[in-house]
Amino acid sequence: MPASDDALGAVSPHQSFVHSLLFSARGPSTARSKRLRAEAAARRLHQSSTTRIPGVIKYNFRLVALVFILCAPVYFYSLVQTHTHVAVTGLLFAAEALAFVLNLLFFFNFWFATERNKVSLRSFHPRLPEKDWPHVDLCFTHFLEPVAQLHDPLAAALTMDYPPDKLHIKILDDGYLGKRGEHYEVTPLGLELEQMVQDLLGGTHPTRMKLSGHLVPRRHAAPGGMLVVTYIDEEKRLPSVSIVSRMKGEETFFKTGNVENALYNAALESPFVALFDGDTEPHRDFLTRTLPLFYRFEPETKRWRVNWEVGFVQTRQRFKNVAHRFGPDDPLNQSNGVFFSAIQAGRDGLGMADSLGTNEIYFRPALDDALGLVYGPLSGDLATGVKLHNFGWKGLYLNAVLAEGLCRNTVGDTLLERKRWVVGSIQMLLLSLNWRALFSARFLVAPLRLQTEARLAALLKRPERFVNPLADDDVGYEARQMRRESFWMGVARRVLFLETTLRPLGSLVAFAMIILALVFMLGNVPPLRFFHEGGGWTYGLIYLGIVASYQFLRLFAISLGCYSLFLDGTSGQDVWREVQGYFTFAWVSALGIVEAVAGAVSGRRIQWETQKKGLRPLAELPNVFLLFVLFGSICIAFVNIFVKGSTERRTTMDSMDAVAYGVFLWVCIWPSTRCTLAALARMPLWSFKMPKFVWTAAGIVIGIAIISIMGRYAQPAPNIGAFERNDYPTGPIIGPDGVTIYQNASLAFQTVFWGPNKIFLPADAATSTYDTGGYVLDSSTGRVSSQLMGYAMMIAVQLNQRTEFDALWRWVQSNMMPQPPSPYYGYVASQVSPDGTILNPAPFPDAEQYMATALMFAGSRWQALGPDGSGDYRQAAYDMLETMLYTQRLNANFANSTDMFNGTSHLVTYQPDPVTRAYIRTATLNPAFYEVWRRFAPKRLGAGVGGFWEKARDAARVLLSVSGNLNSGLFPELVNTDGSPNKGPDGTGDQWSKDTWMVQPNLALDVIWWDRNGAALDACVRYTNFLLAEGVKFYGIRYQPSTNAMLEQGLNFTQRVGLVAVNAMPAIAAGSAVNAQPFFDAIQQIDLAAIMTATNTDRAFHGLLYLLGLLTSSGRYRVFDPNYGAGPE
């Protein structure tokens, strides 16, 4: 077997799949297609043994990519479940969704990856004699760059390892001729170029050929004509050299017009055309290394023949002046290592490598078949490669450095070059959309575009007429037609086209990440929160693990694609620079997108910006500005950590996460901006390099996950409540029966609400259905109490029992709302009979407060309309708050209508009527609820800093701090506004009794949720220590707070079970300051079934208090923030 089969390069086993796609596209077999299948099978059998990519690596990549795709729905569900502010997490969600699409397209590059062996024309066996080597036109494109840049490339071309009589060097100089008035003349740059060529060729004199504009075949490229200056070495020691220039019109078509003028107007005749930028110096073996990929060995004739399936071969780019200009670390990613080492090599497996217009060689018949290069987009070379793929030609890639050029000399020129790439890619996308109603005709109709589309359509729709060999030796025309017709190859072309044209949209992802970082650092709003209300450690860790796993899979798949698939893969620095590039080039990419779209709509031609010295303000300064903004934001976040500490909106751990996030972005844009800053300081561009800084930043980023987990327990500020710390304190998680406290609470809910002696009864007693509502019956009075209804609604929303919640609220709306002309219109009646008759229309403030807060939590937790569909839960809560504050104004036409809160003292009244407004019931002071309203209610209803509810919260805290006994923590039932006891109408208002049991739980709730360093905490500590001194099994149910004398012990468990349950709340609030275990033991020893079956007992009151105590002990009595929703369950 000929060793020279290696000339085709190593091809991976996946090509059996590719060939099956091709040969299954045309329906019934023919003798010709059978022959082609047989040849393909023989070729695959040989070539698979020479692949350099082990199958295990390739399939590992595919497996990881598939797992990544399958994990995506779970990941995005986790983003929803751990969301913070809707807008912030929504932006993250949108950015991640776009990134996911771009990742899918990126991974497709590697699905059929291959890597080619590197061979030479001189290593062919059987040997290919030099006399049979093809003629090659080697072209340098040049415009206004210094002529000196062409010297070394031209000198290298003259000494290439190729027969000089078969090599024809062309300098395609768009700056050789200049127009003065109506005439064209040689410019000083052109004269300098002539002199340089003569010097290199040893004084050879040129011959000149000039064609007028009406004689050239493609007049749009050279409307004024063209001029060719040719230098021929008479001794034939050197290749011929020609300067090809054109007389341009107003529309120049840039590089495409320049090359097309040479190909078709100057009549280049060689079958192969090599293209290089004017500053690119080809290696001596460029042609001998690239031309083998255009050849195939025919076993029948034992000859080498041109492979008419290959349209072009692209090689890698490298710049030899990067280290000199920018430093060895390539801060602007000029080498573009990920693209050249991984993406191009991956696309080569499908024969769909990108054409880049330099360091490549075209098969001239392929260009002729596709009617030449593509006009219109700035990236005409890239579009030309896509067009050749559409015509069925293969684009191959040789991952070898066979030529070296010069990178841009300044940061600004580099950024503008990237912008030009973006403009070209977006223009290609917009041209493919062909929206004639939106885009200008001037943009859509470029030279030869309609003819090209017509020819391609004819090849696809009428192959029997148009599919013919392009030449006598064209044996690849059927294979090309198969590639054109194959459905799956068409899919692959479209996917890779989208990957190319949508790649600039990565800048939108970068912009989103920058905005999120600034919001995080300055606005104290993290994009995600894993340990927040509604979810404990377990669920938070699960969601954190999902998010971390998804990101790991993404990075792992990228690393496999970039590092492991190819022996000549990318370096770690290349991948890191690619990541940095998303942020470095985000601004110019966005400019490019806008410029491309605007040009398509207006029809304005976008100019090709030439290189120049100095600053490019519009391209460079935004990154410098962002650098300083990020630096200032990081400093502010550091101040938050070390000076301000934690606040009600931000924990120290939040600030640390924000700093890590900001430092990561700062490091990403630092490489480009340090070069700009060095240029402004007139120093070498590499002057501000910071070795080891990247590794330090990487360590910080890796620490984010650890910090997040530590933040679960390591909250440094003791004065921050559970809501801000994302951690609700609990009693023992597992009870003596082996069941968790939360499970006990759920079971207890079923017993209390639905057991044999249930307290939750249907509105329609005849059918026992809850469709029209349900109520909690006070068995001791036979009435429906608004207080118990409020407790029940709060318990239902905390336990996620929406059915019961809706039934309760429906019954309140239908039966407990006094109607005009009652002075209590808008309030909830305190006492109602089961048949809906209002017995006492005066509201009970404690009930109103519980209902309003429960409705607000329901709106946050369920984010849905209320049971009757007339409005959402949150709006119902707002209506109740409005009634509490503004009843006197709203009911101005009704006599004796009074606000529930005193507008002067900001304290809740005993009842909203003129008689009882003089004193206050301590059990209705609930500063924890006022803080909820302050944070989450509208400002028009007293929310916000300095609003009514902030003043009400502070007033309640002050009053409770001065009205309780300083030794026992016991409170009288009624107090005056100065905190002194008030005996009330019945003379017992100065006692601590059943009507006062909820004072300490309300204080505990304030401590647990919000304020761990206030007077409420001291009161909880005093109260629990007092009960411990009395004996947890023996303390009384009624006391005289002024003397701490016990008035009633009430050892009968039916009298004290509710008190025993809620006493666990202040014990939890007191924390380590007291021995709380006896209180937990007491609540776990309660026999709920005995309570619910006992006669002559207030089982509804005790049962609901028992549930509140269990909820608090399990850490499930929580705040539900409307910005977060319910959180994980």
Structure characterization notes:
Keywords: Glycosidase, Glycosyltransferase, Hydrolase, Membrane, Transferase, Transmembrane, Transmembrane helix. There is one protein chain. Among the domains are: 129-280, no CATH class; 504-546 and 564-719, no CATH class; 773-900, Glycosyltransferase. The model is unreliable at 1-29, 37-51, 532-536, 708-718, 733-739, 866-870 and 1125-1129 (pLDDT under 50). The longest helix is centred in the middle third of the chain and has 29 residues, at 652-680. 49% of the residues lie in helices and 10% in strands. It is of the alpha+beta class and 1129 residues long. The chain has 40 helices and 24 strands. Helix 24 (652-680) runs antiparallel to helix 25 (693-710) and helix 30 (845-862) runs antiparallel to helix 31. It is elongated, with a radius of gyration of 40 Å.
The backbone outline, from C-alpha atoms, is elongated
Distance between the termini: 67 Å
Beta strand %: 5-15%
Q: Helicity, in percent?
A: 40-55%
User: Roughly how many Å is the radius of gyration?
Assistant: 40 Å
Q: State the strand order across the main sheet.
A: 5-6-7-2-1-8-13-12-14
Mean pLDDT reading:
84
Structural class: alpha+beta
Unreliable stretches covering 5 or more consecutive residues: 1-29, 37-51, 532-536, 708-718, 733-739, 866-870, 1125-1129
Task: Compute the number of helices.
Answer: 40
Secondary structure: number of strands:
24
Taking the sheet with the most strands, its summary is: 9 strands, mixed
